[in-house]
Amino acid sequence: MVSSDGGLDKEIDKIGLSTLERSFRALIYANLLSADANQQSIFYQRLKAEISNVLLNQGLHYLSKEQDTTGSSSQYGWVHAFAHGADLLTEVVCHPDFPKNRAHEVFDVLGQLFKRITIRFTNDEDWRLARVIYEPILQGKLEQEQVASWIKTVDFPIEEREDFYKFSNFRSCLLEVYVQLDQRNSLQDDLKQAIQSFQYQGLAVIFIKIMKQ
């Protein structure tokens, strides 16, 4: 199930039932990694190293390959590939076997994701993606200074309506990070300022361009 049939890469170019299988496989992988990392679980550190490595590697790269943004389907119910992929990526980053010095790879996956998805998320995918950032921060796996520095490098030029959707998805993700850390009194000034600056920077220009379309 983990790698013999391709794992999360199985039929990655197909949608519908194939997406449903990938999505819930990602959710299963997330639960396996969570249990393996949880010292209170009877399954703590029970995953074999080769299996754990496959889960971590596939979990890290899955969202850079997934294309199907279906949230809910009239035929299948919840599909939610990006939400489940976000759950998996969260567990990857929080897992003790995932090195802190690979944080830049996570930023790359997130940055590319928000720049290639041209629809506005409507099923809380952006909030689930926010967990990839704030959960590792809360668990000491990610430094807020790293996140703040990364945010300052992210840019969303607004030329078409779809560009605004990309910007809006990312801004919503950052606002959820802000809220979750702030309500736990864990939000540091550097990250707070980076999110606030991104939130308000250039909005007047953006709305003017959108209104002209």
What does it look like?
The structure is a single chain. The protein is mainly α and 213 residues long. It has 9 helices and 2 strands; from the N terminus they run H-H-E-E-H-H-H-H-H-H-H. A hairpin with a 3-residue loop joins strand 1 and strand 2 (77-78). Helix 2 (49-61) packs across helix 3 (81-94), helix 3 packs parallel to helix 5 and helix 7 packs antiparallel against helix 8. It is globular, with a radius of gyration of 18 Å.
Question: What's the helix and strand layout?
Answer:
Elements: H1 17-37, H2 49-61, E1 72-73, E2 77-78, H3 81-94, H4 103-116, H5 125-138, H6 144-151, H7 161-182, H8 189-200, H9 203-212
Antiparallel strand pairs: 1-2
Helix pairs in contact: 1-2, 1-3, 2-3, 3-5, 5-7, 6-8, 7-8
Question: What keyword list fits this structure?
Answer:
single chain; 213 residues; mainly alpha; two-stranded antiparallel ribbon; 9 helices; 2% strand
Helicity, in percent?
Answer: 55-70%
**Structural class, from secondary structure content?**
mainly alpha
* Strand ordering within the main sheet: 1-2
**SSE arrangement, N to C:** HHEEHHHHHHH
- Helical element count? 9
Radius of gyration: 18 Å
**How many beta-strand elements?**
2
Average pLDDT figure: 92
Q: Give the amount of beta strand, in percent.
A: under 5%
Report the sheet with the most strands, covering strand number, pairing sense and barrel closure.
2 strands, antiparallel
**Can you tell me the residue ranges where pLDDT is under 50 for at least 5 consecutive residues?**
none
- Note the gap between the termini: 48 Å
- Form type: globular
